[in-house]
Amino acid sequence: MSSIIPILLVALAIAFLSINKRKKFVTVKITHWLLFTYVGVLLLSMAAAPFVADGKLHARETVSEKEISQADNQLHKALRAGRIEDIDEKYLVNQKNFDNYQGKTLEIDTIYGNVPELHVERKQVDDGKIEVFCFAGALTIDTLDFTDMAGEPLSYVLENNILTIKPPKEREVKVSIVKNEFTINQFTGAREKGSHIIVNSPYLYMRIPKNLELIEGTEMSVIFVGE
Amino acid sequence: MKVIECKDLTKAYIGKNALNQLSFSIEENKITGLVGRNGAGKTTLLKIIGGFLKETSGTIQVFSERPFNSLNVSAHSIFVDDKMSFPPALQLYELLEAAGSFYPNWDMDLAERLFDYFSFDRKAYHQRLSKGKTSTFNMIVGLAARCPLTIFDEPTTGMDAVVRKDFYRALLKDYLAFPRTIILSSHHLDEIEDLLEDILLINDGKKHLHMPMEELKEWAIGIKGATATVLEWSDKKELIYKNQIGADTLYAVVKNDFDEPSLMKASLAGLKITSVSASDLCVYLTSESKGGIDNVFSDR
Amino acid sequence: MQIAEWIETEIMKGHFESDQKVYSQYQLAEMYTINPATAAKGLNLLADEGILFKKRGLGMFVSVNAKEMIINKRKNQTLKRLVQEVVLEAARLQMSEDELIEMIKAVQNEEGEQ
Amino acid sequence: MSLVIANLVDIVKKQYLFKLKANIDSFSSLIWIQLLALLFSLGGVGSTLASSGYLSIEVKYYSADLVIAFTMIWAFVTAIIITTKPYRNQDFTYVTNRLSSSLANIIFLLTASIIGGITAMLVNNLLKIIAYFIFNEQLYSFQSGFRELALGISMTILYVFCISAFGYLVGTLVQVSKLFILFVPVLFFGTILLKTSVQKEPFLTSIFKFYFFEPSLLLLLLKILLTSCLFFFTSIAILNRMEVRR
């Protein structure tokens, strides 16, 4: 909707100019054609730009840095409090359930350099079911939210009573961003200080049966929720 | 009413005075010819009147206003010469229309008729016109503008004889229908003298003569005859020009303050009395020395 | 004064009767491509000589005896000057008076035959 | 003889319309310049590489900044051109005085800035379309509404107008003396190189910051308008004494 108003305005301006010109201009010169064609093309592209979207030309949500860090804090808080139901689904990037876990112990190990924070919640029952959740903060580039493109920040496998946290596959994110012009950015606070990319670290959250013994790997730090 | 009044008008360029203490005034609705040698200051004077140039000292009033930077003078006068500058992007007909939008008295009908008569192409461009066509087009603009003060500076540059004649006739006819003040500067005084009511002759930036054309025609006479006789007759008269022809014949131009009987006597004494054409007279009046070009060759 | 002479000739030829209005200065100016002031001067010259007379606001009119006045004027002035020159030239050529009169008569006869 | 007194406003209006017609060709150069800038912008106006563990991020930027910059240069050159002799003489062929000529020029430059500013800002969309259709690139843009667009357009117009005012002054100075052709570039590049002892940064940088880093809309508006007025007033004052068709 918002793009229609300026188009109307420009069209009106051109109409006004051409009425004014019609009185005086006897000859229409190449320049006039050029100018009209050019403005016409510009207006067309302006009208078309929002519609070529079709999944490709996205106007992205913008989030401010403050919002990002707030969201991250809230995520963190919710994890610590064990209230994962409160967490926005978009932060949940991977969830796996391991039913009928027979072992008495579970060792947690990592072959991933950056050790994520692991929050563990002990369930009230011994149902032999281990649930693993992976949450990730937002990926933003110049305040545009690209979280959906970040992919899985880490993966994990359960084998022989060992839960191994593995690094994800190398991932390349290539984006082309149409920036606003400096004449807009100057006032919207988006004055460029170079690009600004924020990648927030992932969090792991586990629900384990009541009597499962947890063995921490050498580099792991486990935080038990609600204890 | 006086349209132009100058008093001690001086225009100095670096190291030289183009106009020097020039004083004159031009009456309303007269055609005045501005005559002078090359470099006499004609164009400078006309450009000051048109408000293009700024006077160095003295005063000039056009329509009782100082012309430099006066919108009023600009609106009621037009300066036509062969160097009039028009935007290259506009076609000839658009130039006429533009002129029509600026000048309140503009006569588009006249402009179009002249335009067609001189077979101009409406879609042609000014800078591609030949010299003569440029002058013709500029002249059309100058005539159709019908400005109360119309200045033609060498308007016929490059025109052929037929077009020149057409121009003079067009100028006069339009002047008769719509009298206005016209200043015409030209090298061809013999061609324009019939058109003129007044003549202003300047030399070296100074006024030399300013009088009705009719007076100028009788202002001087030529005497030709035996050298001794001519010298005797022209003694104590204001000698304007003198030319020795052959061994014993002298042609002299003197100011005409003879009365009818003395002229009669002169011709009885064997002198040939002739009238002097205005254009010749102007040449004699403004020549550097009384002998003219012959002096250059005389002492060799 | 060519304009004055031209109007005189017109009157002599009978193109303008007495009491008839002659061309105005503006008509003359247009006919001859001359400044109207010049034309006015020619008209005024004839008015001064009495050949034309002014009617206020109406223009110039031919006087009653305009033709005679012109004839007189041309006889006494123009023709006289021409004769003067002829006589002077004859003297320079050392022609006798009789020779000159013979010549004039001969020319007159030729004109008459035509 | 009663002459209708010429009205300045009326004459300026006529002259402005005349200039619009006479200088129409400057708008075709605007189009070519903007298209050229568009061509340069198609390769992206900047890019960033970043990596965080497993994630490597490559960002390519598109924007019409270059188009705006080129439009500013165009306005600068156009303003200089209309102060040159042939253009001033054209004014004096018809009815004018020096004030009306300058006023009409200023209004013309304003028109040029408006057209230049609007088209420059709209080129952004053309850029998107071309990148989308021809390069088949996945583009992301900011969600910007009418407010941003209107703000962007009006600020671009003001910047372009201010630059044209500067061009008009430079052109005027060159008309006074051809020495300024030499002097202005020397001054320009001189200030880039010259570091005064008081200020750490070159003079030109502070000027740049004075305008382009001003975050307050109102203050910038004030700065630009005052600067433009200053340039134009100076030019008018200088031109008012100049003779034409010498």
Topology of helices and strands:
The complex is a heterotetramer of chains A (227), B (300), C (114) and D (246).
Chain A: H1 4-24, H2 30-48, E1 58-60, H3 65-81, E2 92-98, E3 105-110, E4 117-122, E5 130-136, E6 139-141, E7 144-145, E8 155-159, E9 162-166, E10 171-178, H4 182-188, E11 197-199, E12 202-208, E13 213-216, E14 222-224
Parallel strand pairs in A: 3-9, 3-13, 4-12, 4-14
Antiparallel strand pairs in A: 2-5, 5-12, 6-7, 6-11, 8-9
Chain C: H1 2-12, H2 25-32, H3 36-48, E1 52-55, E2 59-62, H4 66-92, H5 97-113
Helix pairs in contact in C: 1-3, 2-3
Chain D: H1 8-22, H2 25-41, E1 46-52, E2 55-62, H3 65-81, H4 85-93, H5 98-133, E3 139-142, H6 146-176, H7 179-193, H8 203-212, H9 217-239
Antiparallel strand pairs in D: 1-2
Helix pairs in contact in D: 1-5, 2-3, 2-5, 3-5, 3-6, 5-6, 5-9, 6-7, 6-9
Protein model, in words:
The complex is a heterotetramer of chains A (227), B (300), C (114) and D (246). By secondary structure, chain A is an alpha/beta fold. Chain A has helices at residues 4-24, 30-48, 65-81, 182-188; strands spanning 58-60, 92-98, 105-110, 117-122, 130-136, 139-141, 144-145, 155-159, 162-166, 171-178, 197-199, 202-208, 213-216, 222-224. The relative contact order of chain A is 0.18. With 300 residues, chain B is of the alpha/beta class. In chain B, 35% of the residues lie in helices and 29% in strands. Chain B has helices at residues 42-49, 71-76, 92-102, 108-117, 131-144, 161-177, 189-192, 213-217, 227-234, 260-268, 278-286, 294-298, and strands at residues 2-13, 16-27, 31-35, 57-62, 77-80, 149-153, 181-185, 198-203, 206-212, 220-226, 239-245, 249-255, 272-275. In chain B, a hairpin with a 2-residue loop joins strand 1 and strand 2 (16-27). In chain B, helix 4 (108-117) packs antiparallel against helix 5 (131-144). Chain C has 114 residues and is mostly helical. Chain C folds into 2 domains: 2-65, Winged helix-like DNA-binding domain superfamily/Winged helix DNA-binding domain (Arc Repressor Mutant, subunit A, Orthogonal Bundle), CATH 1.10.10.10; 67-113. In chain C, helix 1 (2-12) packs across helix 3 and helix 2 (25-32) crosses helix 3. Chain C is elongated and about 55 Å long. Chains B and C meet through helix 6 and helix 10 of B and helix 2, helix 3 and helix 4 of C. Strand 10 (171-178) of chain A pairs parallel with strand 3 of chain D, so a sheet runs across the interface.
